[in-house]
């Protein structure tokens, strides 16, 4: 491959190295220049460009990425169409992600231009979640490099796959002390039930017994427990030794203790055993919380039908410090839907800088700002409008009556914008292809500008994040393809999706809509300058 400056008169067929925008002409990085492109660039006064030309034996980045993706893909994985040298792999089913770490490392060492990134081994994934990506760094790879990679892989099982969750039956046994509160046991059951639901598993029964060896041993022998695939024991006090009450009761019931303790925090005090050929998990106290902990590492593997050995648990230490990691809920959804683009209007904020009134109820030409924004969005061509309310919910919803928008309330709106974003995303239909995220306090938005953003949205062409700009500076709204919803659900505070945008610069397409992209009304002065009028009778 030859890379460098090329005279524009010789550029037909070359691959553009950098985005070009001249007047109303815009060409993306990676575009292969046609004769028409060259003519238009010449007419615009461009004399030379930085581009790449492929040599004989070079394989275009998209073809190379797809070849590698197919070679590493095993069971229950779907390969997305390649774009800009990237080919993503998604889980077809919910389950546990399996990675041949040594093989992926060997693959990444073949050539700097060939890269494969994956989720962590044995991470629980929902159907539709992206689990790996192949990215070709240059615009092409040589056939020799690809052949080397394929020879490495052909003598092994594909290194990536998903072990599907099975419809397991789980028996819960909880021990009680005189001080044990029923509401704590009820919460424990609900938290475990939520974990099982994500995997398509269910309870066979729940038994509550005294925190004593004999009573627990009898409960473990019960016929209902015998009908279970997995037995989970929650003790009224933590297991502190292999001869404590829970391991002793397991042995008395005829079972075996296979391992106690794990190098995962939280989750250290986990016990793994076996009774009648079924796994028994003595749960650590942290498993009463929905946050991710060592219990999830072991439970998920059993729910996917995978064997868990003592050496597996002892190998969980690297990556096992989870104290600062929040749980990561993932929506059950495909990476791309077949429906239209829905809009989420964020209208939950407290208008703190307004000094009292709610800016969303201020009137522009006699119309409350929140309704004005919603009507503009609805007229742009979106499939539906969801409005997330919070502060002054009743007044905001009253202003929206008859607009056709669907309000959803965020009781945690004080936590910041991200909490409202999560509520909005979870309210969308399962088949939407994308979400247009709109701040409710943007009076300059027009249906034409939003229509331009919708027209630019083409995920299969690499335009899967569409950003509004004002004189080249990024602003709002932002249109997201469904493939990013999982990551957006993990953001926190008031940053929105800014961090996610930074992860995917090649997926971003900017649409210039003028000053409206950066015009909001956070203060009384800004609201008045934009033409708004406070309505004291309505709190805004």
UniProtKB/TrEMBL annotation:
<dbReference type="Pfam" id="PF12804">
    <property type="entry name" value="NTP_transf_3"/>
</dbReference>
<dbReference type="InterPro" id="IPR025877">
    <property type="entry name" value="MobA-like_NTP_Trfase"/>
</dbReference>
<keyword id="KW-0548">Nucleotidyltransferase</keyword>
<keyword id="KW-0808">Transferase</keyword>
<protein>
    <submittedName>
        <fullName>Molybdenum cofactor cytidylyltransferase</fullName>
    </submittedName>
</protein>
<dbReference type="InterPro" id="IPR012184">
    <property type="entry name" value="Bifunc_Mopterin-bd"/>
</dbReference>
<dbReference type="InterPro" id="IPR001453">
    <property type="entry name" value="MoaB/Mog_dom"/>
</dbReference>
<keyword id="KW-0460">Magnesium</keyword>
<dbReference type="GO" id="GO:0016779">
    <property type="term" value="F:nucleotidyltransferase activity"/>
</dbReference>
<feature type="domain" description="MoaB/Mog">
    <location>
        <begin position="182"/>
        <end position="291"/>
    </location>
</feature>
<dbReference type="Pfam" id="PF00994">
    <property type="entry name" value="MoCF_biosynth"/>
</dbReference>
<dbReference type="InterPro" id="IPR036425">
    <property type="entry name" value="MoaB/Mog-like_dom_sf"/>
</dbReference>
<dbReference type="InterPro" id="IPR029044">
    <property type="entry name" value="Nucleotide-diphossugar_trans"/>
</dbReference>
<feature type="domain" description="MobA-like NTP transferase">
    <location>
        <begin position="343"/>
        <end position="502"/>
    </location>
</feature>
């Amino acid at each position: 491959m030859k890379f460098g400056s090329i005279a524009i008169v010789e550029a037909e067929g070359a691959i553009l190295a950098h985005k070009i925008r001249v007047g109303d002409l815009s060409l993306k990085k990676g575009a292969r220049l046609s004769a028409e492109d060259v003519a238009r660039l010449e007419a615009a006064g461009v004399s030379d460009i930085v581009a790449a030309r492929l040599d004989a034996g070079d394989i275009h980045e998209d073809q190379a990425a797809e070849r590698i993706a197919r070679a590493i893909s095993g069971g229950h994985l779907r390969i997305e169409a390649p774009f800009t040298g990237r080919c993503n792999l998604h889980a077809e089913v919910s389950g546990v992600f399996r990675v041949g770490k040594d093989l992926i490392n060997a693959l990444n060492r073949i050539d700097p231009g060939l890269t494969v990134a994956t989720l962590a081994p044995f991470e629980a994934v929902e159907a539709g979640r992206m689990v790996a990506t192949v990215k070709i760094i240059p615009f092409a790879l040589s056939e020799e490099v690809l052949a080397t990679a394929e020879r490495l892989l052909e003598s092994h099982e594909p290194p990536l796959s998903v072990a599907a969750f099975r419809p397991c039956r789980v028996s819960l046994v909880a021990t009680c002390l005189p001080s044990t509160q029923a509401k704590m046991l009820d919460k424990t059951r609900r938290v475990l039930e939520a974990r099982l639901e994500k995997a398509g598993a269910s309870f066979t029964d729940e038994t509550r017994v005294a925190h004593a060896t004999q009573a627990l041993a009898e409960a473990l022998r019960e016929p209902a427990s015998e009908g279970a695939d997995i037995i989970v024991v929650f003790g009224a006090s933590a297991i502190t030794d292999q001869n404590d009450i829970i391991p002793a009761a397991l042995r008395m019931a005829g079972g075996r203790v296979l391992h106690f303790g794990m190098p995962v925090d939280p989750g250290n005090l986990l016990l793994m055993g076996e009774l009648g050929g079924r796994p028994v998990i003595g749960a650590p106290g942290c498993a009463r919380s929905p946050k991710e902990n060592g219990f999830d590492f072991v439970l998920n593997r059993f729910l996917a039908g995978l064997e868990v050995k003592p050496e597996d648990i002892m190998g969980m230490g690297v990556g096992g410090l989870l104290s600062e990691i929040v749980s990561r809920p993932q929506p059950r959804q495909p990476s791309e839907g077949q429906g239209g683009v829905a809009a989420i209007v964020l209208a939950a904020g407290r208008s703190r800088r307004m000094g009292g009134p709610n800016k969303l109820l201020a009137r522009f030409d006699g119309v409350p700002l929140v309704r004005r924004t919603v009507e503009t969005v609805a007229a742009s061509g979106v499939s539906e409008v969801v409005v997330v309310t919070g502060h002054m919910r009743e007044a905001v919803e009253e202003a929206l009556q008859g607009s056709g928008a669907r309000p959803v309330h965020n009781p945690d709106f004080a936590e910041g914008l991200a909490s409202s974003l999560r509520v909005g995303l979870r309210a969308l239909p399962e088949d939407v292809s994308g979400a247009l995220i709109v701040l409710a306090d943007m009076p300059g938005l027009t249906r034409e500008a939003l229509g331009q953003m919708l027209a630019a949205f083409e995920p299969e062409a690499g335009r899967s994040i569409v950003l509004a700009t004002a004189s080249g500076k990024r602003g709002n709204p932002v249109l997201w393809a469904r493939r990013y919803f999982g990551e957006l659900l993990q953001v926190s505070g008031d940053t929105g999706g800014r961090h996610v945008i930074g992860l995917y610069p090649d997926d971003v397409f900017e649409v210039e809509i003028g000053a409206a992209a950066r015009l909001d009304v956070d203060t009384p002065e800004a609201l008045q300058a934009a033409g708004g009028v406070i309505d004291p009778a309505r709190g805004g």
